[in-house]
Amino acid sequence: MPDDFYARLARIAREQRCRMVLDASGQALAAALDEGVYFVKPNLREMRELTGEPLETEDSWFAAAERFVDEGKAEIVALTLGHRGALLVADGLRLRADAIRVEIAGTVGAGDSFVASFLAKLAGGADIEQAFRYGVAGGTAALLEAGTSLASPDDVERLAGLVELQQP
Rounded to two decimals, what is the model's pTM? Predict the structure, then answer.
């Protein structure tokens, strides 16, 4: 598909007053962010590619995510950091969660499980902090599964209670 495909979708979503959620990479991600989306979940490698910066410290991670929000590229940025956990930035909100230590069986689907768990909670009426907690739990739960299996709801629920949020 062309690099501007998600950008075209973002434009249509905005015109229809819909919210677009995006988990993509490369030029397609950059083009969509230029149009603006509701929620984006890059990982650290993708964020480095987007910004052209090394992003080696927590302060730099937050600053990059905050720039996206301030510039209208996304209302919510959830940056996943692998073994270092995740952070979330929205207008006036900064959240940080350390990774939950688990024995990793596989990594396929962790990002998808993060997004799905976050959105399921948000759509169910949870506040953004609770949705972030479940996003982290969902991404972690996917690590418990080998192959292409996604996170199990029971594991997400169990792990959500272990997610500790900080507001740096």
Answer: 0.96
